[in-house]
Amino acid sequence: MLAREKEVRNTFRRFMAENLDRWDWQAAHVPSPLTKEVEESQAVKQAEKDAKRKAKAKELKKLRKAKEKAKQSTVRVAPSRQQPSSSFAAPISKEEEEKRALAEEREKRAGAAERRIAAMQNKGCAAGFADDIPCSCCNSSLAGKIPFHRYHYKYCSTTCMHIHREILEDG
């Protein structure tokens, strides 16, 4: 009961197995005798557990490699031009589909931002919008900034956009 390490406890249990009548083992709170047969069966059980754990780890490693291989083969195909699915195509998980969709969405947004910047530069205001346009919420200047739009309002930040939306909905 007072021994902190397992090996010390096992030493008491081994001694108990050899000398059952030399001590009041119940009063000493030694749980049960530890014989060689019990130790061997515990070692066999532990070896089985270790073997199962190694087999599971090996299987998980194989699955990860297969996923990486499938991912690498799908990365080679351009996201905008996907090949028609055939019987030889690797299965695509939902996570991969979501990641691909998010990447496409990011590309669309980046393209839209580039087009807005190009349109502003073509109009002759390379620094952004004209100096006299204020934020629809906080009235700060939008000069040199690319504003956020909501309906016909222009904002300096998404925070201003959300605050102004709540003001409009309440009023």
TrEMBL record:
Residues 52-68 have a biased composition (Basic residues). Residues 32-108 are annotated as: Disordered. This is Vms1-associating treble clef domain-containing protein. Residues 133-166 form the Vms1-associating treble clef domain. Coiled coil: none annotated. It comes from the Eukaryota. GO terms for biological process: ERAD pathway. It comes from Platanthera zijinensis. PANTHER family: ANKYRIN REPEAT AND ZINC FINGER DOMAIN-CONTAINING PROTEIN 1 (PTHR16036), TRNA ENDONUCLEASE ANKZF1 (PTHR16036:SF2). Transmembrane segments: none annotated. Residues 93-108 have a biased composition (Basic and acidic residues). It holds the Pfam family VATC.
